[in-house]
Amino acid sequence: MFQPELETMPSEALRALQLDRLRTQLRRVYDNVPLYRRKYDEAGFEPDSLETLGDLKRVPFTVKDDLRAAYPFGMFAVPLRDIVRVHSSSGTTGQVSVVGYTRGDIERWSDLMARTFACAGATADDIVQVTYGYGLFTGGLGAHYGSERLGAMTIPVSGGNTARQVQILKDFGVTVLACTPSYALLIAETAASMGVDIRSLPLKVGVFGAEPWSEAMRSQIEDALGITAIDIYGLSEVMGPGVASECRHKQGLHVFEDHFLIEILDPHTMEPVADGEQGEVVFTTLTKEGIPVIRYRTRDISRIIPGECACGRTFRRMERVTGRTDDMLIIRGVNVYPSQIEQVLMGIPGVAPHYQVVLGKRGSMDTVEVQVEVGPDFAFDEIRELESLQRKVAGAIASSLAVSVDVKLVEPRAIQRSEGKAKRVLDLRREGE
Ligand code: DLL
After folding, report:
1. CATH of the domain at 420
2. Distance CA 112, CA 103 (A)
3. How many structural domains is the chain composed of?
4. Mean pLDDT of all residues in the chain?
5. Rounded to two decimals, what is the model's pTM?
6. 233 C-alpha to center of ligand 1: Å?
7. Pocket test for ligand 1, best of 208, 321, 343 (most atoms within 8 A of CB)
């Protein structure tokens, strides 16, 4: 562990620390950010009136539109001269949100990312290839500072140029790879086409996140690269990567609760769900100075995994994020996340781990087509085999998810590869796409 005294804190002490930090944080946002002052005044919420963590339910939410409306710096809680860095959310639609970090924020973020690498089993002896994009995206620089803080040798490759990624992995004897899970698969695929046996390299662990991925995808990646794959989670508005991380037990992601308060709420009623139930993840930052967020609605769906973890960390664990409320497909009334489709696809022999869900329209009817690549050894011109596999895929989706979708098998490499976050849903119903 990178900070064992904090990571194993008894839960009573942790709750007391959280309450203390929360009270300070509420006072700071009320005094320094007009949006919070206005919201709290309107709701009749007096920041100093918070006496227990349970009182949090009286505090108004913060949503992505608040950050967008405040573009670029309107929600910063410190003067701009105290901000030493900005990043932005990847925002595929509309205005991006800009987040600012004080020197103290960068310090804490570095510690939390060092914790993340340590959670994955990395130490100062490791050689870390950072393949998350450097730039406004939080992935690259976040991982970079954490890896350096841990004392590991850090290679700032950033994303792209996959052949060079493979060359560096091999030549530098890289032991830890940090990138999106979909890019890890592309690296494996590229290595194979270059004649590099990636499984025999010193690479032993992957620190993967920034997009939803299924347990079945994890097995595929672990198998293709010959490594242990660890899920890491975070979001720009809350800090970037380093909000939660799996440990070597891979039984959910420890939320770094000394810095972030997690709530799981029913996305319709916004009431807490019962322990262990799924809901929308809502975070409150407890130590951020540049742009604290209070009860920020992430739209990510997860649940708290009850019980203790064998690693000894006392921070509660959230389950891997299945998807975002805005990625959820409603297929003939059934709610489905692309990652659930992925989980089914990955269990079918002959199918490759590359897929896309294409939404279209036939007349006034919405259509859903799952396009998935066949494996490299599949005889694509054998019509009968193709049809049989197609039926098998459609049948597996129907029986696991209770929805019927059109399935289209496509040739190897027909699905566009991604060097960052994979685009799993292609919506042709919208104009301009
Ligand atoms: O993706 C931060 C990050 C970088 C996390 C590198 C992990 C590794 P954003 O670009 O703001 O920040 O996107 C945040 O990505 O709300 C989730 O929907 C999704 N996401 C992030 N990590 C995971 C994960 C970074 N492990 C949004 N599993 C979040 C599923 C994830 N979804």
Report:
1. 3.30.300.30
2. 14
3. 2
4. 95
5. 0.95
6. 5
7. 321
Please tell me whether residues 205 and 229 are part of one structural domain.
yes
- Ligand 1 proximal residues by C-beta, below 6 Å: 89-90, 132, 138-139, 209-212, 231-236, 240-241, 298, 300, 320-321, 324
Residue 131 Cα, ligand 1 centroid: separation in angstroms? 15
198, with CB counted inside 10 A (0-12, 13-18, 19+), is buried
Least Cα distance to 252 among 227, 225, 276, 286 occurs for 276
Q: Which atom of ligand 1 is nearest to the CA of 253?
A: 26
Mutate to test the pocket of ligand 1, among 64, 116, 211, 278 (most ligand atoms within 8 A of CB): 211
What whole-number distance in Å separates Cα of residue 229 and Cα of residue 236? 22
> Confidence band (pLDDT; 50, 70, 90) for 91?
low
pLDDT at 54 over 80: yes
Given a cut of 80, whether residue 93 has pLDDT beyond it is no
Angle value at C-alpha 141, between 178 and 110, nearest 5 degrees:
90
Q: Is the pLDDT of residue 110 over 80?
A: yes
Centroid of ligand 1 to alpha carbon of 274 (angstroms): 25
Q: Residue count of the chain, please give it.
A: 433
**pLDDT tops 80 at residue 90:** no
pLDDT of 433 reads 41
Tokens of 27: 């006072």
| Average pLDDT value for residue range 269-280 | 95
Q: Which atom of ligand 1 is nearest to the CA of 243?
A: 5
Measured distance CA(339)–CA(162) in Å, rounded: 25
Atom nearest to 237 CA in ligand 1: 11
35 and 161 assigned to the same domain: yes
User: Which pLDDT value is given to residue 380?
Assistant: 86
Q: Please report, rounded to a whole number, the percentage of residues in the chain having pLDDT higher than 70.
A: 98
- CATH code of the domain containing 106: 3.40.50.12780
Three-state DSSP class for residue 186: helix
Q: Choose one of 89, 117, 233, 325 to mutate for the ligand 1 pocket test, by most ligand atoms within 8 angstroms of C-beta.
A: 233
